[in-house]
Amino acid sequence: MAVPQTLAEARSQIDAIDEQLQTLISQRARIAQAVALIKQKMGDTGDHYRPSREAQVLRRAMERNQGPDGGPLADETIARLMREIMSVCLSLESPLTVAYLGPEGTYTQAAVQKHFGDSVTARPTRAIDEIFRDVETGAADYGVVPIANSIGGLVSSTLDELVHTKLHICGEVALPIHHQLLSTQSALDGIRKVYSHAQSFAQCRKWLDARLPNAEREVVASNGEAARRAAAEGDGVAAIASLQAGKFNALNILASNVEDDPSNTTRFLVLGKQEPGASGDDITSIVMTAHRNQPGALFKLLQPFAEAGLDLTRLESRQVRDSVVTDYYFFIDFAGHATDEKVRNVLETVRSSAAFFKVLGSYPRAVM
């Protein structure tokens, strides 16, 4: 297509491209409906969300964007556009309900939208353990929970639930976090109380110490709840929350990006009953405990990973609750899928040496 020389030519070309795009998207949607019928004939009556397949589609879209015909849009933008198209098509096959930590406007809801798109039913819960319970009982098809923040560290309630749940980790989401100071008033002067989640207070501590050193800080269950309280209590009260929470509660932005570290990122996990297949770039998560009173017990558990050349991407410890003596769970993420022969052999070796051992899931690495 020739480069337009006039505004009229540019608009005409855009209209023609829009028509082509609409036709192609409609064709994709019809094929998605056909896929649902094909799976029904095959006896597959479950949901049609396939984490490994979706990750592969998004990766290919980003690879095309980087190729010789790549355009001016960033990889993340291309992936977000493809995600929404996939989300709409998937809703025609099998509408999904996804539980998240509510109320509306939380970062967990933003993680749901980033991973699943907007064509799912997002189901807010009051606590992280309710997300697990909703998926376990079938009230939701999937759940999204926070697991760690680059500043605030691990989310202990998620770790505790992972040890005991029968659910599997089906995916992960890396979400850049930008906090806003929100209030019904329009100026920073006179703020006497700030609501937020404990993790957000940890991520904004230096900013608050410098600019609101005398304001009371009250921890609430979520940033969405913080915004709701700030809206209800009015002037003199603020919340640290997302832009989305501010819009939903009609709050003013007193200060933007108040996080201490501009690279602040939270990692979320997608929970479900299915075990995703290999996508070609996967993470496996496990939890285990070492035998007590055995020198080198942890080394013995980690050595097989090194000998097999498996890359450990995360190693965290958490004390076992209600333990008479001090025991620790060790949470490990490493590159590879549980169906790979090398990974399978390592897991069996570690399982035989651990006091407690559980595979939490093998799932596609976050695409963006």
Automatic annotation (TrEMBL):
Residues 97-273 form the Prephenate dehydratase domain. InterPro entries: ACT-like_dom_sf, ACT_dom, Chor_mutase/pphenate_deHydtase, Chorismate_II_sf, CM_dom_sf, CM_II_prokaryot, G/b/e-P-prot_chorismate_mutase, Preph_deHydtase. It is found in: Cytoplasm. Transmembrane segments: none annotated. Pfam families: ACT, CM_2, PDT. PANTHER family: PREPHENATE DEHYDRATASE P PROTEIN (PTHR21022), PREPHENATE DEHYDRATASE-RELATED (PTHR21022:SF19). Keywords: Amino-acid biosynthesis, Aromatic amino acid biosynthesis, Cytoplasm, Isomerase, Lyase, Multifunctional enzyme, Phenylalanine biosynthesis. Its main location: cytoplasm. This is Bifunctional chorismate mutase/prephenate dehydratase. Its EC number is 4.2.1.51, 5.4.99.5. GO terms for molecular function: chorismate mutase activity; prephenate dehydratase activity. Catalyzes the Claisen rearrangement of chorismate to prephenate and the decarboxylation/dehydration of prephenate to phenylpyruvate.
